[in-house]
UniProtKB/TrEMBL annotation:
It comes from the Eukaryota. Residues 25-282 form the G-protein coupled receptors family 1 profile domain. Pfam families: 7tm_1. GO terms for cellular component: membrane. GO terms for molecular function: G protein-coupled receptor activity. It is found in: Membrane. The chain crosses the membrane at residues 12-34, 46-70, 82-102, 122-144, 164-188, 221-241, 261-284. Keywords: Membrane, Transmembrane, Transmembrane helix. This is G-protein coupled receptors family 1 profile domain-containing protein. InterPro entries: GPCR-Ligand_Int (IPR052954), GPCR_Rhodpsn (IPR000276), GPCR_Rhodpsn_7TM (IPR017452).
Length: 329
């Protein structure tokens, strides 16, 4: 099997696999962090829900292009909207992950003033900010991108914005900056946890229960941060390579083109893992998260059984009344 065949198969089965695994996981994440009271007590729940929403959007953007019959890039309006939402979705998902990493650092800090930054009120205020910020940053895509019939795809209509997007927005704002933020707050959070373990502070039972859940949230977020860093690195390297070799693309051989296409598909699949893996990372890294899921499912089943029992009792009572009336008639 040639490299081109491998890249072609990966371009189809990669998005299909990520979509099949990631969409259910992201939906379950959103339902759990909204539906379970213990989860809602943590400010990070807002960021997890926001990330889940944009993870779904990112997986859809990766999945839909495998259907050539869909007119995603065949007109000026659909072309601009598709490119705009593609450029907004991925940074938004990464922004919520960065906010969660910041929240874990603030939550584990020994400084009371810094711990105040980890609150549900602040999380509510910050919740719409990633979408608003990245919509403003990427608004020029709605103006300076258009459908080019000769290329059968979207391309820039403004040379200046093309250079800004190629050399600054995509490599720095989308890949390098989130990576730096995740690494910094991941290290700081790990340092805070090590300091906390050496502290012996008396706390009441309720505080201990909350602390245990916050510790589990911190553990989950650190695990997700590590996976995200691993997933972002290949994309960042690929983007830097593309920028460095931009002026020499016309001199590439066929084998180089195929190899770069294969590497591009691999890096796309790896970054897609970042959007599809949150629920599975939480499930594997936190025993309390697994226990909460089991308890939540039991409650749902019990409520359903109770409703069925009530309906059966009501139906039986109606039958009894009907039979009694028939006897009198």
């Amino acid at each position: 099997m040639s490299m081109l065949d491998i890249a072609t198969k990966l371009s189809f089965w990669g998005p299909v696999t990520l979509f099949a695994l990631g969409i259910p996981g992201a939906l379950i994440n959103g339902i759990l962090f909204i539906g379970i009271k213990t989860f809602r007590q943590s400010p990070s729940s807002y960021y997890v829900v926001g990330q889940s929403l944009f993870d779904i959007a990112a997986l859809l953007i990766l999945f839909l292009p495998i259907f050539p019959s869909l007119p995603l890039m065949s007109s000026k309006i659909s072309c601009r909207l598709m490119v705009f939402f593609s450029e907004v979705t991925v940074p938004c998902a990464m922004s919520f992950l960065c906010l969660a990493a910041f929240d874990r650092w603030a939550c584990t800090s020994r400084s009371a003033r810094i711990r105040q930054l980890s609150s549900k009120n602040i999380a509510r205020c910050l919740f719409p900010m990633p979408f608003l910020f990245w919509s403003c940053v990427n608004a020029p895509y709605l103006i300076f991108v258009d459908y080019v019939p000769q290329l059968s795809s979207c391309w820039f209509t403004n040379d200046l914005f093309q250079q800004i997007a190629t050399y600054f927005l995509t490599p720095f704002m989308v890949a390098l900056l989130p990576l730096i933020i995740l690494v910094i707050f991941g290290i700081l959070t790990h340092r805070n946890i090590r300091l906390i373990k050496h502290m012996h502070i008396q706390q009441n039972q309720a505080r201990n229960r909350l602390s245990q859940w916050e510790q589990q949230m911190t553990r989950m977020m650190i695990a997700q941060t590590c996976i995200s860093i691993i997933c972002i690195l290949p994309q960042l390297i690929g983007l830097l390579y593309s920028v460095a070799t931009l002026n020499t693309r016309a001199m590439r051989s066929y084998d180089q083109v195929v190899l770069e296409y294969l590497i591009g598909q691999i890096t796309t699949f790896i970054i897609g893992i970042n959007f599809a893996s949150s629920f599975y990372i939480f499930f594997l890294s936190s025993p309390r998260f697994r226990k909460s899921i089991k308890t939540y499912l039991k409650q749902l089943i019990q409520v359903r059984d109770n409703r069925i029992g009530i309906m059966d009792a009501s139906f039986t009572a109606q039958n009894a009344v009907t039979q009694h009336q028939d006897k009198h008639h």
